[in-house]
Give the backbone structure.
Amino acid sequence: MTSRSAWLDVPRLKVRRFAEIAMAEAPDLAEEILREIRREHPQLQFVVDESGEPMALVGIRRAIEVFVQHLEAAQGRPSVPPGVFQDFGRGEGLNGRSLDSLQAIYRMGVRLAWRRFAEIGQRVEIPPPAMYELVDAGYEYLDGLVDQSVRGYAEAAARQAGERLRLQRRLMELLLVERHRHGDPAEALSERAARIGWPLPERVAVGVLLRPAREAVPPAVGQGVLLDMEYEQPRMVVPEPDAAGRPELLHRALTGWAGAIGPPVPLADAAKSLRWAEAAVHLMERGLLPSGEVLHCTEHTEALVLLQPEELIDDLALRCLAPLAHCGPTHGRRLAETLLAWLETRGGAPEVATRLGVHPQTVRYRLRQIRELWGAEIDDPDRRFELELVLRARRLRGVLGETPT
């Protein structure tokens, strides 16, 4: 109410009389509002105090009394009663309802209160301009009630989100780590999944992500995908990864992110998918797999199989490629590239030459040298398999050049 308000022009005697009647009828008005709320929203549950009286009724009555006291004093903006309306918002959040329904209830309460105040105003003969101003004050007061409720709603939403993340993390731990340490993990897994409403899929793929920035916003991977951002390299569990629309959704959601998604596996083998995803990320960090995007392990099987067991491959290479030890780095690499092209094409000099982009006579010369170095072993199927294995691994590491196909 400003100094020029119509309400301030109302004689003080009439204002006091209006306030006395409104305060006397506040309990009845509060009960009327609560009855209407219960009628319009029968699903609402109300908490009672120690005396058995609904806390909502106490809050409504207190809100009316504070507003009337402000009208009588006409000083500043009415302060909203703390606590109760924040609890209303918190209750709506915890029960999974939206703030829209709560605001509709508040508007209904203001409408009923205004109807009662209008009747009192007529009895006391308050001028219409002052009563119109009272309506504006009522809706301004309503904004304060809504602000408290929004605060309570936000607190409840944050608490629920935190609890869901905690339960989701425990589910992922059991799925990816603890599963093999329990006598009957299936029952525990079902229980944890049910607590967050996650239907157990038949197959999953597990992803490991590399953050584009320290404070990167979690990717919007969609409902059903479990995501744990607490790891230095975030993890995600994708249910039914081959389901219609799932690959496209993940591709859009993970734009700007890097990492790897392991192969689809039965739910019980989720840890295996994680292991391959971690291996792929390790190779990405070493520059042996493309970086800057989220890779699918199933599209890089050769690299994962040949580059992952480094010690074994290196030991095999040391033994298989021993004949090249005295050929010099450049000439040894050319012989190795020619040998790999010959093993892959299973053809003669012309086919190998085409693959390498050199003259067939050069290939014939190199192949004669290869036979001299390896002797009869070069015709042994097992030795040829080992040679192709280690040479492909070297090409994947960048030691040998790519050959045209």
About this structure: The first helix runs from residue 12 to 40. Residues 280 and 304 are 7 Å apart (CA to CA). The first strand starts at residue 203 and ends at 210.
